[in-house]
Structures are given as C-alpha cells and as structure tokens.
C-alpha cells in the first residue's frame, strides 16, 4: 500500500487535515479537483493571519508548505469513485487512476443552488453574499437586503442590521411570525413582501433590485443562504450516513470527525452545518489528528 491515508479535497479543510498527517510522517495523498466552493469570492475574511487574502492565494501557499514534507504527494484531479476493499479503501480518479489507502479523509465540500433570480448567480460571492461574518464588514454602512429562501431567513435578517440598514424580503414564501416580526422591527429592519425578481447594476456591483410590483429598491448587497448538496458522490458511495442540515445534507461524524464508516473521516462544509473558513480549517485539523491516531491504533492492535 503506497499511501496510508488519502485526503480528498484541497481547500481549507483538506489542506489542514493533510498537514497534520504529513507532520506525523505518514504517507499521504492529497487529491484536489481545483474547484473550491469559495472560488467566487475576491477575498477570505475573518481567517486569522489570512484576512483579505484571496482563497486561491491561501490554498496555493498551503500546498507549497505541504509539498515541503517528504511523505506527502499532491495530485490535481477529480475523485469519481471510492469503495472499501477488506481493511483498505480504493479511490478512483476521473483520468482512470486508482490508489489504495487504509484511511480516507473526505474534504469534498458542497455545491450551492441559488434561487432562480436574474442577476443573482453572476454576483455570487461579490455583492450577493452568504455570510455576514465573512463579508459583512466590506459592505457595512450600505443598504443591505436579506432574501428569504429558507425557514431560518428571519433569524439571519436579525443579524444584518449590525452592518447596515436592512430590508428583509420575504419573497412571499417565508412570512415572519409575530415574535420574529417584533424582533425584526426592534432591530430596525424593514419588511418587504413583494418578491425580488431581478438584481440590477453593473455586474458584479449591485445597485438595486426590481420587485414583482415594478418598484426598484436601492441595495448595495444582498445576503442569501443557498441550498447545498454534496459536491462529490464519494461519501454516499462509501456508505456514509447523512444528517439533515438547515440548508442540505451533511455527512454525519462523531466528535473525532470519523463518519459512520470506520476508517473514513470527514471535515469542512460537507460535514458541518456552519460554513466558515476558520471552522473548515479547524475541522480539518481534527480530522487529520484523529485519522493519525486511528492509524496508530491499527498498527498497535
């Protein structure tokens, strides 16, 4: 067996997991498809020591640092299949390659599905945003909107007034209840019940939104939580169990980041309901550390 562990995914979670295993002098293969979820963002914020850096620059530097460790191999490619084979796992890539390892770390991420509103997809990660902690400071002081597309949207709208004057667009789908309405009003948020039908402005800049009743409302940024799905079929192929997250399925893990399949660990957005660069990196550290300890216990038995 040429590798002891294979890490699938080379974004913040995968790189962090691979670093722990490499520092433990384990033979590790990192396979990265090169299509991270955060590729649409101009910068990563709130990540200590990396604030304002582009996600691509952070990942490039991470791979450079990893490459200095003699027991790690980094390959560009897309993993399309994985299965167990006795006490090992077989991983197959899109180009027909195949590798075996005793352990797998899934850092495969999620894919986003946005509401079908003209102009929204083109502004994703720029002026159409998902996380105020990641991007709120950069649009603070402006006219901000929250587009309701899930039951927790009203809660999200209660947070946004800390960054700017806020309008909560119910989209005629998620009307706040009496308690939510009182809290939103108390926070100074305006409630708009006519749905957004188009985003306006010189893309990727947002200047206003057009409503179903024809009105145009000035906006500098809009927050929306996309629905998510697994970006890779590998977790399902391996037989991992899933939980229902607020925006889509997440891979079920224990405190040690091991999935319901022994020897398979998971980290990052695919295994967490909270999506944030720092949290993804931290979960990758945990997955890498516990994966290493699992390898130790395997040989010590």
From TrEMBL:
<keyword id="KW-0285">Flavoprotein</keyword>
<protein>
    <recommendedName>
        <fullName>Thioredoxin reductase</fullName>
    </recommendedName>
</protein>
<feature type="domain" description="FAD/NAD(P)-binding">
    <location>
        <begin position="5"/>
        <end position="128"/>
    </location>
</feature>
<dbReference type="InterPro" id="IPR036188">
    <property type="entry name" value="FAD/NAD-bd_sf"/>
</dbReference>
<dbReference type="InterPro" id="IPR023753">
    <property type="entry name" value="FAD/NAD-binding_dom"/>
</dbReference>
<keyword id="KW-0614">Plasmid</keyword>
<dbReference type="InterPro" id="IPR050097">
    <property type="entry name" value="Ferredoxin-NADP_redctase_2"/>
</dbReference>
<keyword id="KW-0560">Oxidoreductase</keyword>
<dbReference type="Pfam" id="PF07992">
    <property type="entry name" value="Pyr_redox_2"/>
</dbReference>
């Amino acid at each position: 067996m040429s590798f002891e562990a294979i890490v699938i995914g080379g974004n913040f979670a995968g790189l962090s997991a691979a670093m722990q295993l490499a520092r433990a002098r384990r033979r590790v293969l990192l396979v990265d498809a090169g299509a991270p979820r955060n590729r649409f963002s101009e910068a990563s914020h709130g990540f200590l020591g990396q604030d304002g850096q582009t996600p691509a620059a952070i990942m490039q530097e991470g791979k450079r640092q990893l490459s200095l460790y003699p027991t790690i191999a980094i390959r560009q490619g897309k993993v399309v299949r994985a299965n167990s084979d006795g006490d090992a796992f077989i991983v197959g890539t899109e180009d027909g390659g195949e590798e075996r390892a005793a352990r797998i770390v899934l850092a495969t991420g999620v894919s986003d599905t946005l509401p079908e509103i003209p102009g929204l997809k083109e502004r994703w990660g720029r002026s159409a945003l998902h996380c105020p902690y990641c991007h709120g400071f950069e649009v603070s002081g402006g006219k901000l909107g929250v587009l309701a597309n899930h039951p927790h949207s009203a809660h999200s709208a209660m947070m946004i007034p800390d960054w700017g004057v806020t309008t909560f667009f119910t989209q005629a789908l998620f009307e706040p209840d009496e308690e939510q309405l009182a809290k939103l009003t108390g926070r100074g948020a305006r409630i708009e019940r006519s749905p957004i039908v188009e985003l306006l402005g010189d893309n990727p800049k947002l200047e206003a939104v057009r409503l179903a009743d024809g009105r145009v409302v000035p906006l500098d940024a809009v927050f929306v939580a996309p629905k998510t799905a697994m970006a890779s079929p590998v977790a399902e192929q391996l037989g991992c169990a899933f939980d229902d997250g607020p925006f889509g399925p997440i891979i079920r893990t224990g405190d040690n980041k091991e999935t319901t399949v022994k020897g398979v660990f998971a980290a990052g957005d695919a295994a967490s309901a909270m999506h944030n660069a720092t949290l993804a990196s931290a979960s990758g550290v945990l997955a890498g550390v516990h994966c290493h300890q699992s390898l130790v216990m395997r040989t010590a038995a």
